[in-house]
Every structure is written in C-alpha cells, then in structure tokens.
Design goal:
12 helices; alpha/beta; 7-stranded parallel beta sheet; Rossmann fold; 21% strand; 353 residues; 5-stranded parallel beta sheet
C-alpha cells in the first residue's frame, strides 16, 4: 500500500510542485491538498492521511498551530517545510516541539540543484516517516501499554578489549527525530553531570546555533554549538555545527574540539562517523557512545572503530525511534552493548558515570 499524503501550503504553485514530485514515486499517493492550517486540520480529520507535509507561514492558521491541532485531534506524522534562516530555524524548532516529526528546506536549491536528487530525498523522507513516524506519535501521545524497558542486544562481537567503565566522554549521534530525542536525554541530566557530552545531529548550518541555544535554556547542563578550539568541560554539551565536520583531539590532559570544512562529496555535514572515528583515535576505550533515531547508517563505521578500541556502544530501540535506521545499522553490525528506550537513556547514563 502506498503512503497517503496530504500536501499543505498557501502557494498553489508550491502545492503543485510538491504534489508532482511525490506522485512520481510509486510508493506515495497524494490524496489532497490544503491552502491553510485550518483547512489542513479539517482534511486530516476527514481523509486520515499517513503523512502531512506542512508549510509554516500560512494565513488563517499557521503551520505550527495546525500541527498542534492535528496532534491533539488526530495524530499524524508531519513533515515541515522550512526556510534556512535564523527565524526559520526557530519556527521549525517550535514545530518539532508541537509534534512534527521532521523538516526539509523549502527552497529546493538548498537541498540540491538536481531535480532527481531533490525528489529522491523528499520522497524517501515522506516514505520513512509514513512507515515509522507513528512510533514518535505513540511516544508523545501514549496509550496504556506495558512500559518500554531496557532489553539486551545480541551478543556484541568480540573485537577489541573489554569496554571500560572509566568513561571520559559521552558521545551521541542522531538524525530524523533527533532534536526531540536529544532534548529528552539532556533535560534529565543533573547540573553536576561529571563528564562532557558531544552531539552530532544531522541539521543545516543555520539551525544548529538556534537548537543549541534552545537546549541550553531547557537543560540544567550547559549546551552550546561547538566552536573550533573549545576545550571540553564536565557538565557541558557541545553540538556539532551544521555544514561542517567536528573532531575531538587530545592535547595533553585536555580534550579539544576541532571544527573544519567538510569535503564536498560528504553526504552528512556533520557526520557521526567522522566525529566517532576521531574519538576512537583520541580516547580509545573511554567513550560511552549512543546512536539514536535517524535515517541511513551514519555512525555505524565510527561505532565499529570505537568498539574495536574497547568503548561502549548503546542504541535506541525500534519501539521508541521515529526512524529505526541508524540504530538498526549498529545493531545489525553486532556491536551494541545495550538497546534502550529513549526515556531510559538519561537514567542509564547517570548510573554508568
């Protein structure tokens, strides 16, 4: 069965453009469109689509309020179209907090100059959140069911030394669904948390500063967008800047962040693999690394190197993921020491350090 999509935008040109791109994928079916948030809410209740694509700025009712109404009345995975500006970033973060699952740039030139590449990325996102996005909705709108508990992973491959409990750093990698997941974990850590944390979230360059600022306001620990030369401090979290690559180096007794330009052919900017590979070289068996919700397999190769060095690898379980892609890749590689529900991460991190 194809994923059924409702397209919402006040521009008739953009509605036609999006509908045409989606209709070209046999795994998708555009069932209708709406030109404002109020109409989007009504058509969602009437047609019950699998996914809603939502603009943010619209007359009558904007996309953020429409998202809130849909999540309250009939939860459906929502993909937001966002402008890559500072104001666009803040509005998109508001939409994610309201219940949207993911976002994509509204200016197609910000995705790619090639139409086929734009179509591929857009359709893949819609299909993935259509098939898996309801996990996120169940988490935000729980129905009575047994609590998700920690489950053991398959036995990890016996490569490298035994994982050390003498951690010096917490490392987290994520993509689709990651902003809400990171907020869930960091907001439940105490101000006195004894280690530094680094985070790699697939996110545009114009978004990471706003996201780090928001996390800093919501959390007891300090959170900032990483800058070249930052010396890692306990009780602080550092978010990799969008559009660049972040590595961690040892300089004497200090751990220092190096931010550099990304190679043009790199798919992910920032890349979890790049950061985690640097950790394997600089810290060996002293890293507690976690892979959270996200599309693709970024982080798997970096986790293999960390595991070989003796570090510990955790992954988010399928039930609590928005998209079970990145965690699945690590699990299938046989290198996970533990699979956890999202709500269990913060308590297990605190116990482990």
């Amino acid at each position: 069965m194809p994923v059924r999509v409702l397209v919402v935008d006040d521009s008739s040109f953009f509605r036609r453009q999006i509908s045409k791109l989606l209709a070209e994928d046999p795994g998708l079916e555009v069932i209708d469109s709406a030109e404002n948030g109020e109409e989007a809410v009504a058509k969602t209740l009437e047609l019950k689509p699998d996914v809603v694509t939502m603009d943010i700025e619209m007359p009558v009712m904007d996309g953020i309020n429409a998202t809130r109404e849909i999540m309250r009345k009939h939860p459906v995975p929502i993909l937001m179209f966002s402008s890559l500006t500072t104001n666009g970033a803040k509005a998109t973060l508001d939409a994610l907090e309201a219940g949207a699952v993911d976002f994509i740039p509204k200016r197609f030139e910000d995705i790619s100059k090639k139409r086929e590449e734009v179509k591929k990325i857009l359709c893949e996102k819609v299909i993935q959140i259509g098939k898996h996005g309801l996990n996120a909705l169940r988490r935000k709108n729980p129905t009575p069911r047994p609590k998700l508990t920690t489950v053991s992973s398959r036995p990890s491959s016996k490569i490298g030394s035994i994982a050390s409990s003498n951690y010096k750093l917490i490392a987290i990698g994520c993509s689709t669904g990651g902003p809400v997941a990171l907020q869930e974990i960091l907001a439940n850590l105490p101000e006195s948390f004894p280690l530094p944390i680094i985070m790699v979230q697939h996110m545009p360059a114009s978004f990471t500063a706003a996201f780090a600022e928001r996390l800093n306001q919501q959390c007891a620990i300090g959170v900032k967008e990483a800058e070249n030369g930052d010396v890692l401090k306990a009780g602080h979290a550092y978010l990799a800047p969008g559009g660049k690559q972040m590595e961690v180096r040892s300089r004497g007794t200090q751990l220092v962040i190096e931010v550099r330009e990304s190679e043009p052919d790199m798919t992910y900017k920032p890349s979890v693999d790049v950061t985690f590979t640097s950790l394997a070289k600089s810290l060996g068996n002293q890293v507690l690394a976690s892979i959270l919700t996200g599309m693709g397999a970024d982080g798997c190769e970096g986790c293999k190197k960390l595991k070989k060095a003796g570090s510990t690898i955790w992954a988010q379980n399928e039930e609590s993921c928005v998209v079970y892609g990145m965690p699945a890749a690590v699990y299938e590689a046989g290198i996970t020491d533990k699979m956890l529900a999202l709500t269990d991460f913060s308590s297990h991190i605190v116990k482990s350090v």
